[in-house]
């Protein structure tokens, strides 16, 4: 993929002992962008707090990540081409191999404000569009599991599993505070007593 950045600010004081990086006007595109003109990711502001020790040892170093005024567009076109490969690092890269180690996971918080998410698949006739007004997730590592504590305020613009039949949800608000666990060995999500509000109704 291709990455373009506007302004970059680096600070060793703002989040000491971690290193903070503020990126403005971020753009990530795939190799066929000149053909389809769809950016995989754009953002006016991306903030990351990095572990300096892990950064030096070339391990996964991001502790906290904040994304503001952004859009993700993950698509599969009618020929089967997808820009989803950008989500997967090269299998033979040294960084990818290092990041596969269990103790390399370091992310503890994700915050999103005004972020548009779109997933479309022209082959399977699927189209999902969600506006993340605000989302904050705390992440704790417990053995092989990841525990998530999430507060979300979303606007579901479209949730369509078959575009020929229309959207399952359309223009609906979604709010909730909930926890879930990702079991990495089983590749499973585990939920328990999740309370959410759809259009203000539980």
List the helices and strands and how they pair.
Blueprint: E1 2-4, E2 8-11, E3 19-29, H1 33-36, E4 41-50, H2 52-56, E5 62-76, H3 94-99, E6 109-121, E7 126-142, E8 145-160, E9 172-183, E10 188-191, E11 195-198
Parallel strand pairs: 5-6
Antiparallel strand pairs: 1-3, 2-3, 3-4, 4-5, 6-7, 7-8, 8-9, 9-10, 9-11
Q: Which terms would index this structure?
A:
202 residues; mainly beta
What does this structure look like?
- The longest helix is centred in the middle third of the chain and has 6 residues, at 94-99.
- The protein is globular.
- Strands 1, 2, 3, 4, 5, 6, 7, 8, 9, 10 and 11 form an eleven-stranded mixed sheet that branches.
- 7% of the residues lie in helices and 54% in strands.
- It is mainly beta.
- The protein is built from three helices and eleven strands; from the N terminus they run βββαβαβαββββββ.
Summary, kept brief:
The chain is mainly beta. The protein contains 3 helices and 11 strands.
What is the overall shape? globular
Helix content: under 10%
Give the percentage of residues in beta strands: over 45%
List low-confidence stretches.
Answer: none
Q: What is the CA–CA distance across the termini? A: 41 Å
Number of strands: 11
Order of helices and strands: EEEHEHEHEEEEEE
What's the alpha carbon Rg, rounded to whole Å? 18 Å
Structural class: mainly beta
Summed up, the helix count is 3
**How would a crystallographer describe the biggest sheet?**
11 strands, mixed
**On the 0-100 scale, what is the average pLDDT?**
88
């Amino acid at each position: 993929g291709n990455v373009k950045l506007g302004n970059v600010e680096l600070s060793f004081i703002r989040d000491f002992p971690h290193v903070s990086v503020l990126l403005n006007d971020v753009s990530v595109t795939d190799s066929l962008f000149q053909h389809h003109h769809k950016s995989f990711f754009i953002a006016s502001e991306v903030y990351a707090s990095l572990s300096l020790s892990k950064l030096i040892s070339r391990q996964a170093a991001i502790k906290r990540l904040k994304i503001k005024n952004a859009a993700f567009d993950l698509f599969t076109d009618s020929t089967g081409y997808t820009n989803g490969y950008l989500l997967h690092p090269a299998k033979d890269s040294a960084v990818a191999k290092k990041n596969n180690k269990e103790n390399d996971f370091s992310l503890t918080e994700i915050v999103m404000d005004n972020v548009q998410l779109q997933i479309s698949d022209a082959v399977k006739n699927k189209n999902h569009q969600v506006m993340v007004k605000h989302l904050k997730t705390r992440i704790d590592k417990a053995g092989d599991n990841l525990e998530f504590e999430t507060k979300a305020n979303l606007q579901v613009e479209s949730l369509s599993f078959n575009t020929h039949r229309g959207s399952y949800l359309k223009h609906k608000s979604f709010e909730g505070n909930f926890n879930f666990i990702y079991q990495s060995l089983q590749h499973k999500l585990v939920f328990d007593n999740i309370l959410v509000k759809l259009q203000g109704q539980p």
